[in-house]
Amino acid sequence: MTSPPVGPARSISPARSARPVQSVDRGQQSRRTAGLLALIVALAVACLVSASVGARDLSLGQTWQALVDRGSGQASLVLWESRIPRTLTGLVVGPALGACGALIQAYTRNPLADPGILGVNAGAVLGVTLGIGVLGISAAAGYVWFAFVGALVATLVVYVLGSRGGGASPERVTLAGVALGAVLSGIATGIALRDRNVFTATRFWGVGSLASSDISQTWTLVPFVVLGLVLALLLSRSLNALALGDDLGRSLGARVGTVRVLTVVAVTLLAGGATAIAGPIAFVGLMVPHAVRWVTGPDQRWIIPTSMVAGAVLLLVSDVLARVVLPSGEVRVGLVTAVVGAPVLIALVRRRQLSAL
User: Fold this and answer.
1) For burial by CB atoms within 10 Å, which of 168, 232, 243, 332 has the most?
2) Which superfamily does CATH assign the domain made up of 33-350 to?
3) Measured between alpha carbons, how far is residue 263 from residues 151, 172, 177, 266 in Å?
């Protein structure tokens, strides 16, 4: 009895086996693109609402008419003298805070990292306070350098303190940042309370506000923020490699030392520039990258640009809430981001497990 001939083994086509992976990649890419486009649309709506809502609400028709025909009417005066400068300031500060938070979280591999929590904003505030109180500098072009130095020193001190005794763990870095931030904030507050001129110059700016910013000073600081944003985008691919560890990152071609130095430079430009413009605004840099990461995944090439747009949306919406939350007057946007942001982050964490960095 002869056995039946055995035919050649049926091989699995590489193209066929790759289809599920390609399908997953396409699905992830589509979700990222859709999320970014949705945020861009939300940003356009937030800009329109920011221009229309305030102590005196403007209808969409009034807002559009004042935009296309800049006259001397009350609506045009409110729009061009207050609403548009405030909205433009949010479009500068929001992306800076969102990108800065994403950079710090990627750099430290610490999901709790944020310019406010790690004391970077407090360092910038102390630098500006010293510039105003000690040297009498009142122009943003002058005291921004003090903000940069303060942010840089705070970043380096926190990382050194958090790295002692067995490496930089997220918990140790966070505790070092909170402690240093409290000390620096206390020093800045003490200087402001001893000098009436410093107190007057920083009382609104010190809690974070888009309304207290002079648009001419904002334009002076825009180049620094833009440079920081460009650096953040250029570093995104290398930060993906560093997320795997320094040794594996080097094997993938990343220059670890250069990437770390440039990341610190970008964080300094973004945190220092945003703080010099609007004061310390908390929580944007912490919440935005977390929320964005649930849509984009752990890829920094998508996290950083999406965080820029999401940061602008969050800040503008918070600023609108700051204008209408009280029946008369308004609160500072820094207070709104802290009050609104914390429960939102808690709800998001409870709803879905955080993605790995």
Assistant:
1) 232
2) ABC transporter involved in vitamin B12 uptake, BtuC (1.10.3470.10)
3) 13, 20, 18, 5
Give residue for tokens 């102390």.
126
How confident is residue 307, by pLDDT bands cut at 50, 70 and 90?
Answer: very high
Q: What is the pLDDT of residues 324-345, one digit of tens each?
A: 888 777 888 988 998 877 776 6
Among the listed residues 69, 90, 91, the one whose alpha carbon sits nearest the alpha carbon of residue 80: 69
Question: What digits encode the pLDDT tens for the residues 101-115?
Answer: 999 989 888 777 788
Q: What's the rounded Cα separation, in Å, for the pair 226 and 266?
A: 10
Q: Report the alpha-carbon distance of residue 84 to residue 88 in Å, rounded.
A: 6
As to burial, measured by CB atoms within 10 angstroms (0-12 exposed, 13-18 middle, 19+ buried), residue 329 is exposed
Mean pLDDT, the chain, rounded, equals: 82
Backbone phi, psi, residue 347, to 5°: -65, -40
Give the tokens for residue 242: 């560093």
Sequence-separated (6 or more) residues with CB below 8 Å from residue 177: 113, 117, 118, 119, 120, 158, 162
Give the Å distances, CA to CA, from 147 to 35, 94, 109, 154. Answer: 34, 17, 25, 11
Q: What is the mean pLDDT of residues 273-299?
A: 90
Tell me phi and psi for residue 90, to 5 degrees.
-65, -35
Contact 90, 317 (CB under 8 A): no
